[in-house]
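Q: For a teaching handout, I want to show students what a protein-ligand complex looks like in token form. Below are the inputs, and the small molecule is adenosine-5'-diphosphate. Please produce the holo structure.
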Amino acid sequence: MQSYDCLIDGRDVPAADGRTFEIVCPSDGKPFAAAARGGKAEVDAAVAAARRALETGDYGRMTPTERGRVLSRMAEAVRDRHAELTALEAMDCGKPTKQAATDINCLARYLEFYGAAADKVHGLQIPFLNDWLVTGIREPHGVTAHIIPWNYPAQIFGRSVGAAIAMGNACVLKPAEDAGLTCLEVAKLALDCGLPAGGLNVVPGIGEEAGAALAHHPDIDFISFTGSPEVGTLIQKAAAERTIGCTLELGGKSAQVVFADADLDHALPIITNAIIQNAGQTCSAGSRVLIESSVFDAVTARLAERFADLRVGTHAMDLDLGPLINRQQHERVARFVERASDLELLAEGRLAGDLPAAGFYATPRLYGPVSPDHYLAQEEVFGPVLVAIPFNDEADAVRIANGTAYGLVAGVWTKDGARQLRVARRLKAGQVYVNGYGAGGGIELPFGGVKRSGHGREKGFEALYEFSQLKTIAIHHG
Ligand code: ADP
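A: Here is the structure, written as tokens, with adenosine-5'-diphosphate included.
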């Protein structure tokens, strides 16, 4: 069984107390690897290494162009090892191989994007009094903490670490205990691609141990967190204790709004995919479909046909959905489904035959009509459950779409151009798609939430601003 250490100061380091934890494949519930169970000692060492790299090491002396070249080389190295990283991501997360392959492509694209962007973030020159020159320069925060989840480890590594390194931060990453082995592999690749030791350190471990030690570390300058709203609140409190900044990318209950004039041939495959992708374990999953009443029955009938055709299998079977990540998540989704017995189940997909008994499988389900205030239309399931909600008119659609605690992504399906813009502007979400939907997609597109979905923006150029701050230098030249 392969064993993974922490990566600290460019070296493989086991946990000081020798502890490890098992990494289980969700497809069969069996351990297939082990990782060092990092804790406070490893986090302390990793943060100290990052600080040294930044202040006295080679990393801090690199030019933006040099850092960009390292990221670009990493993108190529990821592409060279695409098959191997795809197999690891699929096994670690239990996701169908085609999804894992997409995730590794996205990882390479993030590294490519941020590699190319590293020396293109210009500062400001601000008109002021005649005998002054005022300039604004973008500086890195310093040592950045990256606490990431198990649903898209490779992609989130790319978007978070890629942007942070582009801006010159030294990183300490804590992957999720359930899946994050690709992060360790790619961090090692970074060294081969010329990243000086300490520029990127990875401490695998448990959330309450390594995660909490990192979030509370007194020498961290910024935290980038993606995960649950509950832990996001803890992270924000930890950041507040030391008055440092954080970005929080938390959950969602994203709505897709389907008007009667929508092109259903185009919309329905995308609407279906937006909830089954990664077995619904996607922050930006389209977990509510709002349908204009006049076409509600016709649209749900067509969606139901699609749901009935969906198949769930192991990551290697590469069907429509893989298993859920772990037993806890499996039980959580099962509880949601049990509590939904008052709702009409319009369709359910099927499990493939001969699945390993200990795998964490859940069938995709479509419910409707569901009242907008039903708990299944309000709470994030993080599983393959879609609720169909009828609406009467545009105002009703916007009210329902905005009527949850979350606001991550939304979709609008209509051919009416004025309505596209009106609705897009009224929806409370960090990203709105019109006649399309990219659950987790679009590395170039700034992404993040409003309300309980979090704050701050990742992806695209905007992330470069998040991972830096503006210093104003005012020069009186007389
Ligand atoms: P999910 O529901 O996706 O598992 P979590 O919020 O539990 O989301 O986990 C996201 C990341 O946060 C993981 O890397 C996890 O280990 C970490 N984490 C969990 N609890 C804590 C905590 N108390 N402090 C810091 N990090 C934590």
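A: Two things your students might notice: The radius of gyration is 23 Å. The CA atoms of residues 39 and 210 lie 4 Å apart.
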